[in-house]
Design goal:
Shape: elongated
Number of strands: 0
Radius of gyration: 19 Å
Order of helices and strands: HH
Distance between the termini: 21 Å
Number of domains: 1
Helix content: over 70%
Protein name: Cation/multidrug efflux pump
Structural class: mainly alpha
Keywords: Membrane, Transmembrane, Transmembrane helix
Transmembrane segments: 61-81
Largest sheet: none
């Protein structure tokens, strides 16, 4: 039982890291395109870092809920219903 749980958490963690990197890269590319299309003046890297700060906080929270909380909650509910109802 514990081995399955550890394996499940490892798979979820790998999925979390992969999705975090994918969404972060996609958002960074959109910011670079936006920077180029608006013909901004100034430091591009400062603009991108400033915009990424807030995005990363919300992305990490959203991914944690979707990747960890929802599957574990559904699994726990299924186990409870199967065993005790």
């Amino acid at each position: 039982m514990w081995r399955i749980l550890v394996l499940f958490l490892l798979v979820l963690t790998a999925l979390y890291v992969c999705l975090l990197m994918y969404f972060r890269t996609a958002h960074r590319e959109r910011l670079i395109a936006r920077w180029a299309s608006e013909l901004r003046v100034g430091d591009r890297d400062a603009f991108i870092n400033e915009e990424m700060t807030g995005y990363m906080k919300s992305l990490k929270l959203w991914l944690a809920v979707v990747i960890y909380i929802v599957p574990i909650g559904v699994g726990a509910t299924l186990i409870y219903v199967q065993n005790f109802m």
